[in-house]
Structure formats: C-alpha cells, structure tokens
C-alpha cells in the first residue's frame, strides 16, 4: 500500500518554515510521504544552506518550490507587496503541482497542511476535495488574539482596520499575557500601510481557518492553559523540536556555523551568554555598539550570532579594537545551530528577540531569558516569559529609545545572580519535555492527528 502523501506549505518566512519542517520530519517518521513547498526564492536559500550538509533523502521529505509572484530582485520584506503577489499567483501554482503529482507519479495528495496565514492553500484543498489542516507556528495566545478581533472591534477597543481607539491594557483571559494596545501584533510590523495589510490578512485567515479539519499549534497546553481554554479549537502538538526526536533540524535560510559547539566545549558550565536575534531583527549602529560594549563589560564568555544583514553599517559594525579586546572570551558567528547551542551545558542565559521558535527552544532547555523583542508577536512572547512564566527579564530603554550598555550589564547580573530564574526555567523544561513523550498531552493529540490523516 502506498504511503499517504502530504503537501506542507509554510508562510514564506524563516520562523514559519522551520516548525513546519519539524512537523514534516515527525510525519515522515510515522510513515507519511511529504512534499514540502517553499517559494522559489526561499527554496534557493534553503538549498544553499544545506549545500554542505547531508542532503535530505528523497524517501524523507521532498523539497519543491513554486513562484511567489515577485521578481527575484524585489524585496520580500515589503509584506504588503509580498501578500498581494502570493494571493495572485500561488493558488494556481499549487493546483498545478497537485495535478502534476497525480499525472506524473500516479500519486494522490491525501492532505494539505498549510500555515494558518496561507488561507488560500486551504481554499485550494477545499476546491480539490483534499483533507486540510491549518498549522499555527506561533503561540496559541496569538491565534486566540486573531480569533478575538471581531470582539475587540465590537467592544470599541480597535476600529475596523485594527487601529486602537485609545491606549489601554487588554486581557483576553485571566492568566494570559496582558497586552498594551500599541503592542497588538499587526501594529508591530512595518509602516501604517503594511500594518493595515497584515490586519486584513488576519481577518481573511479568520474566515479560511474555518475550512480546516484540524487547527494544530506548535505549543503545549501546560505552557498556555488560558489561551487553549479560550480557543479550544486550537490543538497543541508541540514543542516541535529536532532534539525531541533526536533528529537534525532543517529548513534554515543560512548555513549554520557548527564550530561554535567546539568553542562552547571549552567554556565552564552555565557561564556563556548566548545572544541571537532571529532572522529579521536589524540594529542601527549606536544600538549595535552599545550591545557589543555591554557584552565586553559583562566580563563573561559570550556567543553572539551576528547575521551579515543585522546592522546598517556592514563594513565596520564593531567598536574600534573590539575583536582584539574580547579575544577568545567572545565568539561571533553568522548563524548558529541554535537547538544544539541551547542544549549545551555551558549556556547560562539566552539574550533573545523572543521569536516563538527561540522561546520554545530556550524553554525546552531550561535556559532563562533576557528579552529584546523587535516586532510582531515578540512583545507578546516577552510578556509570557517575564510576566506569566517568570523565567526572564525585560530591558528598559533610555529617553533616546536606546538600551544602554549599563542597563544590559545590570540585567545580565540580575538574571544570573538569582537562582529562581534557572529553577523556574528547569520546571518549564520538564513540562515541555513531558508533554511530547508517551502519555503526554501533545503526544496523545499528535497520535490522534496521525490516525485521522491515515483514515
């Protein structure tokens, strides 16, 4: 009997590709055939990053691509332009791919798993009478917030295009992170035009998600009980991490520099500050240098992921003589194998942008956080880390909007000088690990999910 064939289609951003790739690897281990559909642009990046690695075997996940409707030189960070092009071009290309699989391989696609933000893919599945699953790669609280948009409009908290009618704090439910209206996710992305487009995409996703047979989420009930109670249709199957299945993570847009693991081996236990800001964060020169000097002043070993495009001055981003002064105490790399880094016994804390994948990876390794959110849902995740789970600290900006070196150094000392943060983080690690093991809640839901897909 041939294996059930699944098409997985992520939203085209790094933080969305990796967790859906993790889910795809889990499905392959359970006897499914998976065709993973990136955009042409991201497919090239993934293939280049994989160039030095053992390629994924074809009997595992097949990586294919379809166009996103933009020319190669156009800016994919212009979200408005990207969304418009995707809606125009990708549905037709996905249909063609499904037909091609049927004609050329005599193989029928049995299910489409689409990122919840790719509602158009669920519409294609509906039209072609294929099982459909919406995959949510972020916190359940964020999806619950999206589902609550009509209620927020009705209560007069926001208007019809997502603009807050006054500045206030909102609680969607008890024990969920309290949000400032100015931190609502769609207001933390780009300029006003982009914000309105993102808000419209969320409204349209609210409609298309109703087509899905299942809505699965990369989280765990015990991490967000209030959010899952508020929106019981969201089913947790996470944390989806390569380390849980002892596998190799894939889907990265940058080649990982694994030499940093050997450097970590040389450091004392729980001594290293790991600093990484995900795939989107950018710094101006002043802030970048304040962070660099703070790490030097901390007098602790640090591993710092500095993407080639993280700073607007790519020629000389560091303060004069910086690299000579920090010497072997600090290591800067372009991109790191993050799950392996966070699992390393030498890591003391994680200075993070609080993207959801990074948040789960830190929690699952019992590492406390220093939070430096940049955009989108990262402010909501910071609130979980500091206010709900109490496993991290926030930074305060000065009147110029800069986080100064003294503030960074003080918070490092405060976090590492208080054993409670590490103790609470260890408890959450236990919780995150238990839920994906035999008998755990995420594990049970995942087993039911697999049975349904095979039925």
UniProtKB/TrEMBL annotation:
Keyword annotations from UniProtKB, A to Z: Transferase
GO molecular-function term, one example from the UniProt record: quercetin 7-O-glucosyltransferase activity
InterPro entries according to UniProt: UDP_glucos_trans
Transferase is among the record's keywords: yes
Highest taxon listed in the record's lineage: Eukaryota
This protein's record includes keyword Transferase: yes
Family matches, as CDD domains: GT1_Gtf-like (cd03784)
Family label: Belongs to the UDP-glycosyltransferase family.
PANTHER family referenced in this protein's UniProt entry, alphabetically: GLUCOSYL/GLUCURONOSYL TRANSFERASES, UDP-GLYCOSYLTRANSFERASE 83A1-LIKE
Protein name: UDP-glycosyltransferase 83A1
Organism: Rubus argutus
């Amino acid at each position: 009997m041939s294996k059930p064939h699944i098409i997985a289609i992520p939203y085209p951003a790094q933080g969305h590709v990796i967790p859906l790739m993790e889910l795809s690897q889990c499905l392959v281990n359970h006897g499914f055939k998976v065709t993973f559909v990136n955009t042409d642009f991201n497919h090239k990046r993934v293939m280049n990053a994989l160039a030095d690695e053992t390629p994924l075997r074809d009997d595992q996940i097949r990586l294919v691509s379809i166009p996103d409707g933009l020319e190669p030189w156009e800016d994919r960070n212009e979200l408005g332009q990207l969304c418009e092009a995707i809606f125009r071009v990708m549905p037709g290309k996905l249909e063609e791919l499904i037909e091609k699989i049927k004609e050329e391989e005599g193989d029928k696609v049995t299910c489409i798993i689409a990122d919840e933000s790719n509602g158009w893919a669920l519409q294609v599945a509906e039209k072609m009478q294929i099982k459909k699953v919406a995959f949510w790669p972020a916190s359940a609280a964020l999806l619950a917030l999206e589902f609550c948009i009509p209620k927020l409009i009705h209560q007069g908290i926001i208007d019809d295009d997502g603009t807050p009618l006054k500045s206030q704090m909102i609680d969607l439910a008890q024990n969920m992170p309290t949000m400032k209206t100015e931190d609502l996710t769609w207001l933390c992305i780009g300029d006003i035009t982009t914000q309105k487009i993102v808000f419209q995409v969320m409204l349209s996703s609210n409609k298309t998600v109703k087509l899905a047979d299942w809505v699965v989420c990369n989280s765990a009930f015990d991490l967000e009980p209030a959010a899952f109670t508020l929106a019981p249709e969201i089913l947790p199957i996470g944390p989806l991490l390569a380390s849980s299945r002892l596998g190799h993570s894939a889907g990265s847009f940058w080649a990982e520099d694994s030499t940093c693991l050997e450097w970590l081996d040389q450091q004392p236990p729980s001594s290293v500050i790991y600093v990484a800001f995900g795939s989107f964060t950018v710094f101006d020169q002043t802030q970048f240098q304040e962070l660099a000097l703070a790490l030097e002043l901390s007098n602790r070993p640090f591993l710092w992921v500095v993407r080639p495009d993280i700073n607007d001055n790519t020629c000389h981003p560091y303060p004069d003589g910086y690299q000579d002064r920090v010497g072997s105490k600090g290591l800067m790399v372009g991109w790191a194998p993050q799950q392996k880094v966070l699992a390393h016994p030498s890591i003391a804390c994680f200075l993070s942008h609080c993207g959801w994948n990074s948040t789960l990876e830190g929690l699952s390794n019992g590492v406390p956080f220093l939070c430096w959110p940049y955009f989108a849902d990262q402010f909501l995740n910071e609130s979980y880390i500091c206010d709900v789970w109490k496993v991290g600290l926030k930074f305060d900006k000065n009147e110029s909007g800069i986080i100064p070196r003294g503030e960074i150094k003080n918070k490092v000392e405060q976090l590492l000088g208080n054993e409670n943060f590490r103790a609470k983080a260890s408890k959450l690690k236990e919780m995150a690990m238990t839920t994906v093991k035999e008998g755990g809640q995420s594990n049970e839901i995942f087993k039911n999910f697999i049975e349904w897909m095979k039925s």
